[in-house]
Amino acid sequence: MIERPRTALILVDVINSFFEPGLPNHYPGVETVLEPMRALRRKAKESGALVVHAVERHRPNVDDFEWRKLPVHHLERAHDADYFEDFRPEGDNETAVFKRRFSAFFATDLALLLTEQRIERVIIAGVKTNVCIRATAQDAFANGFEPVVVREATNSNRPHLADASLEDIDRYMGRVVSLAEGLELLA
To answer: Catalytic positions, please?
Structure first.
């Protein structure tokens, strides 16, 4: 019998800033990823797979290199940086990783956490495909994890860049799969 690779789910930036209308990073259509992400999370919880909430958090009153390109955002304890609705980590198989750059791996302990749990594959979902999802998939690959992006569980306000990013991820780094296949990989 061939043993299946151990798989974890990474939910990227499921925070108010992107999903609450009126906040700076909200964009039309972003809500379409919510139900697919909920389905992936439910399946991960049922199977006991690790769920990592990778959320952007910056320190207030501390200079951050990112401010040279983007306005100040997602400060610790700020409303825009808080988890959206029912996406707060809960239960024994859920944890959080706080990131200060686009990738959930860069300057965090995510690779160490996954390695210690003997994870080989990561299912990646969240926002935005052409920025944080792509950077996370690329760094998952660079760290020796198979990145799998669920097409219905990510999107962007720049669809042409999202499509190009998904094509690159599928061609060079990992796989882009349907929600049904993503759920099966978490079973």
So the answer is: 132
What are the distances in angstroms from CA 92 to CA 40, 95, 119, 123? Answer: 17, 8, 16, 19
For residues 55 and 14, is the Cβ–Cβ distance under 8 A? yes
d(CA 141, CA 134): 11
Residue-wise pLDDT tens digits, 132-171: 999 999 999 999 999 999 999 999 999 999 999 999 999 9
Q: Collect all residues with Cβ–Cβ distance below 8 Å to 167 and sequence separation of at least 6.
A: none
**pLDDT tens profile 29-85:** 999 999 999 999 999 999 999 999 999 999 998 888 988 888 778 889 999 899 999
For the chain, list the domains and their CATH numbers. Answer: 7-186 (3.40.50.850)
